[in-house]
From TrEMBL:
<dbReference type="GO" id="GO:0009052">
    <property type="term" value="P:pentose-phosphate shunt, non-oxidative branch"/>
</dbReference>
<dbReference type="InterPro" id="IPR020672">
    <property type="entry name" value="Ribose5P_isomerase_typA_subgr"/>
</dbReference>
<comment type="similarity">
    <text>Belongs to the ribose 5-phosphate isomerase family.</text>
</comment>
<comment type="function">
    <text>Catalyzes the reversible conversion of ribose-5-phosphate to ribulose 5-phosphate.</text>
</comment>
<comment type="pathway">
    <text>Carbohydrate degradation; pentose phosphate pathway; D-ribose 5-phosphate from D-ribulose 5-phosphate (non-oxidative stage): step 1/1.</text>
</comment>
<feature type="binding site">
    <location>
        <position position="121"/>
    </location>
    <ligand>
        <name>substrate</name>
    </ligand>
</feature>
<comment type="subunit">
    <text>Homodimer.</text>
</comment>
<dbReference type="GO" id="GO:0004751">
    <property type="term" value="F:ribose-5-phosphate isomerase activity"/>
</dbReference>
<dbReference type="InterPro" id="IPR004788">
    <property type="entry name" value="Ribose5P_isomerase_type_A"/>
</dbReference>
<feature type="binding site">
    <location>
        <begin position="94"/>
        <end position="97"/>
    </location>
    <ligand>
        <name>substrate</name>
    </ligand>
</feature>
<feature type="active site" description="Proton acceptor">
    <location>
        <position position="103"/>
    </location>
</feature>
<dbReference type="Pfam" id="PF06026">
    <property type="entry name" value="Rib_5-P_isom_A"/>
</dbReference>
<dbReference type="InterPro" id="IPR050262">
    <property type="entry name" value="Ribose-5P_isomerase"/>
</dbReference>
<feature type="binding site">
    <location>
        <begin position="81"/>
        <end position="84"/>
    </location>
    <ligand>
        <name>substrate</name>
    </ligand>
</feature>
<protein>
    <recommendedName>
        <fullName>Ribose-5-phosphate isomerase A</fullName>
        <ecNumber>5.3.1.6</ecNumber>
    </recommendedName>
</protein>
<keyword id="KW-0413">Isomerase</keyword>
<dbReference type="InterPro" id="IPR037171">
    <property type="entry name" value="NagB/RpiA_transferase-like"/>
</dbReference>
Length: 225
């Protein structure tokens, strides 16, 4: 079993009958969704899933996990999602899979957030992983210029064919190759104030529990209630 599968299966243990569960996006969250699907089908687990991307929605539907839109629930009990980086003070970067907007909306509606990662995602400081910023297409060149002026080293995300990637909301992603983010809260506050920025991938003071996969086994870190 690989480390992503290990933490995905471990996190699914936190899901109980009657819960509304936020289902994250990415190659690690994939295994958690598979395990919840297995429990729904084999153990008659009764849950409602709230998905964070079209990809996860497709996976959950194929597994017959009952789903509701975030707009049709009053709250989410727990959201389980991956992360691109987690710093030593448990701040995170997400959005490598371009799902950061829905992921943040669901995370902010959740009583608890569990992040599942392999040990390579645990870092001292955020920023070696390029910080994704979701922007509307209109004015995105102006934002690229602004970010470049501020030495944030922006690159518009494209696929291997050079086509600009669009999110589930038809927005663009600008990745900021910062290297080391000294003051994540300041950067987050500045980014969200720029016209055209829809959301950024700094997930600050969000996570309740981090489940880290090591070759020796699973480490569970309780960060906040
Ligand atoms: O934020 C995300 C998607 O927008 C993912 O959770 C993050 O990119 C981690 O993905 P993976 O588990 O595939 O490494």
């Amino acid at each position: 079993m690989n480390l992503k599968q290990l933490v995905g299966i471990e996190a699914a243990k936190y899901v109980e009958d009657g819960m509304i569960v936020g289902l994250g996006t990415g190659s690690t969250a994939y295994y958690m969704v598979e395990e919840i699907g297995r429990r729904v089908n084999e153990e008659n687990l009764k849950v409602i899933g709230v998905t964070t991307s079209k990809a996860t929605e497709k996976q959950a539907l194929a597994l017959n996990i009952p789903l509701k839109s975030i707009d049709d629930v009053t709250h989410v009990d727990v959201t389980i999602d991956g992360a691109d980086e987690i710093s030593k003070d448990y701040q995170g970067i997400k959005g490598g899979g371009a799902a950061l907007l829905f992921e943040k909306i669901v995370a902010e509606s959740s009583k608890k957030n569990i992040w599942i990662v392999d040990e390579s995602k645990m870092v001292d400081y955020l920023g070696a992983f390029p910080l994704p910023v979701e922007v509307i297409p209109y004015g995105s060149t102006q934002l690229l210029n602004l970010f470049a002026e501020k030495n944030l080293h922006p690159i518009l995300r494209r696929d291997d064919n050079g086509t600009i990637i669009q999110t589930d909301s038809q927005n663009y992603i600008i990745d900021l190759h910062i290297g080391k983010i000294e003051h994540p809260h300041q950067l987050a506050d500045w980014l969200i104030k720029q016209a055209g920025v829809v959301e950024h991938g700094l997930f600050l003071d969000t996570v309740s529990t981090v489940i880290v996969g090591h070759p020796e086994g699973v480490e569970t870190i309780q960060v906040r209630d």
